[in-house]
Design a protein that fits this description.
Chain lengths: 185, 604
């Protein structure tokens, strides 16, 4: 029987959750015995090659590309997991949610409007290449955009938490994480 | 100004013995005199009764009828419940808005009139209704609202708005209100005549234990809705250690659609006081407190008068009815607009001069209630039943009603029916019979027991109203086939969100989440798993909440999903774009960026 496939992505995240996934250390060898990786930064596969058992989502949705990628994951994965606080709550990127989009852009790019240290941008140009995905009005947690089956909290979730959850899901057992693995204070 | 404030507060606090457990009376008096309890006033009150300012502020900020900000000389509170809405309160609201030039929650620039909405004021049988200060205005219309504003602008005295007086004691000089009793069916327990003292005399001829035995034999259960056996409650309280015990009467009738206690308080207050005295004798208490909801303040003078008459007749006070050593008196505690205070432990908190927070149970009030003493808390109607049981004997009472629910029950019937009002019926009556009595036609749904009860459909109209099947504290709302059950459920959820005391998370947060998801469904943004989500979240809120409010607040949703599932399913469609949540609108989310960039999304 073919191995089940796992896909991962980082949307508006910092790749910290992916780093945490790599923190499973030598167990990654066991993991590749269990699964094949499909679309993922781990193996740099850009497009889905087929149906996946599990999709791990890091980061929330800050721009249109994030939404399209997430939609693609929903279409291809049986189970979607929001991994980490950005996917679950929006996290650090969502700090802009209380501020109007134009104000955010001006603060980042415009010499005249910027309150922080000046940037050299005499024409106050806001980047607008058609290649750049349009920003959403605010940063959305993933479950507000598509249906999410599980949430793994943490910033990032520890390697052991990711490992236990993945192994349980792939071996068809209930995801019952002990308290120590979901306790963060 | 602050000199007068200081001396007024000193006077008010002294009248309450500088007792901080009388905080409600103190802040209510200050509110009445100055139109608000200002920050300065709170400091002064705290100092006067030797407590911390935060205790005063927590009370002022909790109750709807108290405010730190000054309100108008006249406060118009339009009743905002589903029945009033069905009877046209929206056009009344619009008329008030237009004529006053302000929105709800605002005060006119001259500081004379404040416009507010308030949950059910117990006038569903004569809706739409409003409270203007303490006066009740019933059967409102848009034209009447305009007329009222014009009159108030000329003379801001709401008493002058009262035109034709209502029936019975509503026309009494001490009441002078336009409220109607609407007693449609007078049963033989509450709405028949009883001579003052007839029940108490028999009680005093027995030992307290024998009185409790009689209440038990009558199989009397609490009429507030929960149906706890009254005799058993009294027994626990009697046996609880302590010299000082209390009898509390729950007259905080706040369950939307309930107004039967209003009618008892208007016409049969003496019977209720008699029941309280019987309870006092049975459990060994010398003090009774009636917790009267703020909305019924217009009845206070009448109740005080009834108490004075009983004192004069020797039915209250020292050596009641000549019984040596039995002392019992009753005071009235005003509430200030908080539904949660109908919950018995929250009611006790409020009587103690605190925020209306429910307390942990155990200890139950029977062990540790008002001021830490063993306390009996019963509903207005329960005390009336007690008086009659003692007058006629338990057998007389027990043979009425059904097996598990003896006696009669007062129903407050409102909504889509020809004869809304109060009906005293024997327990066990079928819903269909009730609908026939009140002249309801084309009925599609009936809300039994108010928002915290259940919404039933036609297939349950053959069920009996009693504790074992369809329990109710008295509220029966009738809806015909033109009404949308989802919108009714939403209205009820709005009510619970507003009235949650906020103490525990399941109730404070859970009810908001339930309401938001219901909103999504009503707005056509429901997703396939939403009903499961609502049911499971509803079960969590019920199981994890601390008091009866949260334990029942998901009922509007849970019972409509159970009994009107097709109404929900009809609203849930496939999402517009594959994979996306129906609540997520990508076009709306992108519109700001599109206008900044001056280009459209490449995907559209």
């Amino acid at each position: 029987m073919a191995k089940p496939k796992v896909a991962t992505t980082s949307l508006a995240g910092c790749f910290g959750c992916h780093m945490s996934l790599l923190d499973i250390d030598e167990r990654i060898l066991k993991l590749v015995e269990l699964v094949d990786f499909d679309k993922s930064p781990v193996d740099d596969i850009k497009e889905f090659t087929g149906r996946c058992a599990v999709g791990l989502i890091e980061g929330g949705c800050a721009n249109e590309e994030n939404v399209r990628v997430l939609q693609d994951f929903r279409r291809h994965c049986d189970v979607l997991i929001s991994v980490g606080d950005c996917a679950i709550n929006g996290g650090i990127p969502a700090m802009r949610n209380g501020i109007a989009l134009m104000e955010c852009l001006q603060e980042a790019y415009s010499t005249d409007h910027r309150l922080g240290p000046k940037v050299h941008n005499p024409d106050n140009v806001i980047p607008n290449d058609p290649e750049l995905p349009l920003l959403l009005d605010k940063v959305y947690p993933c479950h507000e955009v598509v249906k999410i089956d599980y949430h793994l909290p943490g910033c990032p979730p520890p390697a052991d938490t990711l490992w236990e959850a993945l192994v349980a899901l792939l071996s068809d057992k209930p995801v019952a994480l002990p308290y120590e693995l979901i306790k963060y204070d | 100004m602050s000199e007068t404030l200081a001396s007024a507060i000193r006077e008010i606090a002294q009248a309450c013995g500088n007792d901080r457990s009388r905080m409600m009376d103190i802040v209510e008096a200050v509110q009445a005199k100055f139109g608000c309890v200002s920050s300065e006033a709170m400091d002064l009150i705290a100092k006067q009764v030797s407590t911390h300012r935060v205790e005063v502020e927590s009370v002022v900020s909790f109750y709807a009828f108290l405010s730190e900000q000054p309100k108008g000389k006249v406060v118009i509170r339009l009743c905002d419940d589903i029945i009033d809405e069905m009877k046209g309160s929206e056009s009344v609201a619009e008329a008030f808005r237009q004529e006053l030039g302000i929105d709800f929650g605002q005060t006119t620039p001259d500081g004379v009139i404040t416009l507010e909405k308030t949950p059910c004021i117990g006038m569903c049988d004569q809706a739409p209704a409003a409270l203007i200060n303490n006066e009740v205005i019933t059967y409102l219309s848009g034209d009447m609202a305009r007329e009222i504003v014009r009159k108030l602008k000329k003379d801001p005295d709401p008493k002058k708005l009262i035109g034709r007086l209502g029936d019975g004691n509503n026309a009494h000089d001490l009441v002078r209100s336009m409220v109607h009793n609407n007693i449609r069916l007078a049963g033989e327990v509450v709405f028949s005549t009883m001579a003052s003292g007839a029940g108490l005399k028999n009680a005093l001829a027995m030992t307290p234990q024998e009185v409790i035995r009689d209440v038990k034999t009558a199989r009397l259960r609490g009429r507030g809705g929960a149906g706890f056996p009254t005799g058993m409650k009294w027994d626990f309280t009697r046996q609880a250690p302590g010299d000082k015990k209390y009898v509390l009467c729950n007259a905080d009738e706040g369950e939307p659609g309930t107004f039967k206690d209003r009618v008892i308080l208007t016409e049969k207050a003496d019977m209720m006081f008699e029941g309280m005295a019987v309870a006092g004798y049975a459990i060994g208490a010398d003090t009774g407190v009636v917790y009267l909801r703020g909305e019924y303040a217009y009845l206070r003078a009448l109740l005080e008068d009834a108490l004075a008459k009983r004192r004069n007749a020797g039915l209250l006070g020292n050596d009641v009815m000549g019984k040596k050593g039995f002392r019992f008196d009753i005071r009235i505690q005003m509430g200030a607009g908080a539904y949660i205070c109908g919950e018995e432990t929250a009611l006790i908190s409020s009587c103690e001069g605190l925020r209306g927070d429910p307390k942990n149970r155990p200890p139950f009030p029977a062990q540790k209630g008002y001021l830490g003493c063993p306390t009996v808390v019963n509903n207005v109607e329960t005390f009336c039943k007690v008086a009659r049981i003692l007058e006629h004997g338990p057998g007389w009472f027990a043979k009425m009603g059904s097996e598990g629910s003896s006696g009669t029950k007062l129903l407050s019937i409102s909504g889509d029916c020809a004869k809304p009002g109060v009906y005293e019926v024997p327990f066990g009556i079928k819903v269909r019979e009730v609908l026939d009595l009140c002249g309801a036609e084309d009925t599609a749904a009936v809300q039994v027991g108010g928002p915290s009860g259940q919404m039933i459909g036609m297939n349950q109209f053959g069920d009996p109203i009693c504790y074992e099947h369809l329990a109710t504290g008295g509220s029966v709302m009738v809806f015909n086939s033109s009404r949308d059950v989802l919108k009714i459920a939403r209205k009820f959820m709005e009510f619970f969100v507003e009235e949650s005391c906020g103490f525990c998370t399941p109730c404070r947060v859970g009810n908001v989440l339930l309401k938001e998801k219901l909103d999504d469904i009503i707005n056509g943004k429901g997703a396939a798993g939403d009903l499961d989500y609502l049911e499971s979240l509803g079960a969590t809120v019920k199981a994890a909440s601390r008091c009866g409010l949260g334990q029942t607040s998901p009922n509007p949703i849970v019972t409509t999903i159970k009994n009107f599932r097709s109404a929900y399913e009809a609203k849930i469609k496939a999402p517009a774009e594959e994979g996306l949540q129906p609540t997520f609108d990508i076009h709306a989310a992108l519109s700001t960026a599109e206008s900044i960039a001056g280009r459209k999304s490449v995907h559209t």
